[in-house]
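no rush on this but wanted to send it before i forget. what follows is a protein written twice so to speak, once as letters and once as structure tokens for the fold. mainly i need to know what kind of three dimensional shape the backbone takes. thanks a lot i owe you, the record is right below.
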Amino acid sequence: MSFCVSTICFSQTENFSVSFENDDYFQAILKLEKLTDKHFYFAEDWLPEEKVTKNYINVSLVEVLEDLFKSTTTNYYILDKTIILTRNTIIYDKLPEGFSRSLDSEETHFTGNAVEKTEVNNSPIFLRNNDKLDQEIETIFIGKEEIGQSKRNFRLSGYVYDKETNQPISDIAIVTENGKGISTDKEGFYNINLSPGINILSIRSLTNENISKRFVMYNDGHYSFYLSENLEQLDEVMLSSNMDSNIDDANTGEETIDVENIKNIPLVLGERDVLKVATLLPGISTPGEGSAGFNVRGGKADQNLMLLDDAVMYNPAHFFGLFAAINPFTTGNVTIFKGNIPAEYGGRLSSVFDITTKDSDTSEFRGEASFGLVTSNATVEIPIEKGKSGLILGGRATYSNWILRSLDEESLSDSEASFYDGIVKYNHQFNPDSKLSATAYFSDDAFSITSDSLYGFQNRLFSIKYNTALSEKTRGEVILANSDYRFDINYDSDLEDRFELGYHINETEIKFNLNSNISAKHKLNYGISSKFYNVEPGYIKPIGDSNIINFEVNRERALESAIWLADDFSVSEAFLLSAGIRYSFFNALGDSEVRIYEDGMPKNDDTVIDTQVYDDLESVANYSGPEFRFSARYILTEGLSFKASYNNTYQYIHTLSNNTTVSPTDTYRLSGYHLKPQQAQQYSFGIFKNFDANSIETSIEGYYKTSDNVLDFKTGANLNLNEYIETETLQGEGKAYGVEFLLKKKSGKLNGFIGYTYSRSFLKFDSEFTDEQVNDGEFFPSNYDKPHDFSLVANYKLTERFSFSANFIYQTGRPITYPTGKFTYDDADYVLYSDRNEFRIPDFYRLDLSFNMEGNHSLKKKAHYFWNFSVYNVLGRNNPYSVYFVTEDGQVEGRQSAIFGIPVPTISYNVKF
């Protein structure tokens, strides 16, 4: 620290030069006193806490003071040789012109302990000296009063954080004395206009403490709330809803998962699984046990947009769906849109899974770890700059390779089954209005069970987001994201046909998204995005001296862009309307060769009449169209509302698979010259009712969905390494409808939820050509048509430390195509099959139980632990994973296989520090 003076003067109008280097304000003021004949009067705790590094050359004392305090809440008043410093306020030696007239008019009045100006500008803000502020409510002084300021309202903005985890909390209600208020957005940010003078703000939350604070507004300013967890939340199981947002918002089919409390739910091998919990919710299912992918409201598995910090994750599973590739320790929020999808999202027909990683604690080092029978997980949060930035590191791995090699089974000695994933997120708060976050994620799977083939797939993604306030009413964010997914099979044998087979997809997106609170009645969301695809649909490469021919299907590239605008319009306190439009554009790009087929004829090798060649990045095909998003909510009585919605969507990327369940061997193709984009439209209606101060939620929702250009395959199709995929695929129409019921009890010793869905899903592929028809061109059940789906999740707390949990799941068996007979022709046996999906595999049901034991909840403990003892599939139900047929002794016999045909006990230990 140093201080130097080149010229010393004793008048604030005479110039001098001075430098400060890393001085605090108290030291700087004392040194200014030594240079002048002035005496400063102030309270030391009013001074800013920042350090001062300034260099002033040939300036006056007034210029020095103006510059020192311009970005602070400190004002100053000069009276002869005395300088008085004040916090927030101005010392007036005369009233502004017109002030006395304003006091006599109706335009200026006292509110609480302050004079509040409503119409006349330039009115000071006074606190009455003979009135004491209520000490039970903390008083916060905001802003710096300015002479001649003319604003009628001041803006207060900031964030709401969880005091223990330092994570932002969304959907927290912040209410003024007159009952008006706002709620925090998904980043925990709020922005509210308040009158000059005293304002009382109250926070009302079911999951966190309710508090009130007094704000004395002198100007625009920032304040962040830190809320303690409501003790009642200890009784919650997994689904959280802040206040009565399920009643108040306009979205149908929106679900939120409480990531922290899924630890109480018994899951296979003790691994917390956010996505498996999602399948317990009405309207969301999987094809079967141990399978990846989700079917949402009768849609295909590739019709779900899976986002991790705004980057697309193509395969969110390990071990074909036995484990999720999402780390529960680093996950902050999971929001699922299965009904009305907000206009900012696009590219998929059925749903959006918006998963965000939590921010690192910026105040102290934190960590969490778990140890199970098959996997371990560890996460740490590292402050980088105290109060501003931090780094979160998470990693998971399995030691199943070691287990396989330890078994006394020779056939498994060369087997491999392993996965790991890691995530890094950096978050930096520049100021209360600006925030930067960057996420990097990588996962790797490799498995080979009694086989010469080593299967492997990898997810890699990166995203960076900058969020800032552009004005008093508008916040904006810019997002850059890249996703990369690749799959390969390495076939290594003693023969000369060793090869590597695989595919690869990469996409990069930039997105600008803005939110504007135009008024108390209108909230706008608008933006623009563009995404570039680079797809290698398939390749085969020889290994070593193999005789396999090196072959690669032509790569596909495309540009998908969109622009959107949506308005949440509060028509009245009871009626909320959300209307939006998204217009999407898709341009398939070369280089490529496209077959031209004879009009009115089936697409096959015999009907090719020409080949069209497209140069690098030349436009091959263009598609575009409007996507409308409408939803409405009407509150009939307190705790009871009706909602309805309509939306239509486009999807330009497709999964090619002839498996019933999602498989890593599936490949991806883009819409193009022959392959049209899929389209869907959905209508939904729901009734939502809460009881017992919102601790019990009930809802019943119905939906009807139609789709066009749905992709499927011809009977006997060969999809692997096929350059002309249009000859093996079909595009038809689909329809789905259903009713979903949910009863959720969020507090009390016994809590949990019951969900039931009745739904149907059908497809239709009709053509004038027989080989392009399925089931004679009539509607038939889709592979994921399961009419009845029931789930029960319950948690009973014996004490605050000990609890029992249970899951019970029942689902109708999925459709399947059976052989119904055989015949002999020309000395060869042939099998006759039923119509596609005419039969069903046996119904699925499973019961899981667990006992949970927590350490004591003392806040002084350096670490808190949690034990989970679970039994998965208590009844030992042999739920079929697949059904297949073999011929023995001239007879066709059906066989079925299951992933878990016996009870599976497990134990896991979790520690948080």
The CA atoms of residues 715 and 795 lie 47 Å apart. The first helix runs from residue 25 to 35. Residues 245-912 form a domain with the Maltoporin; Chain A fold (CATH 2.40.170.20).
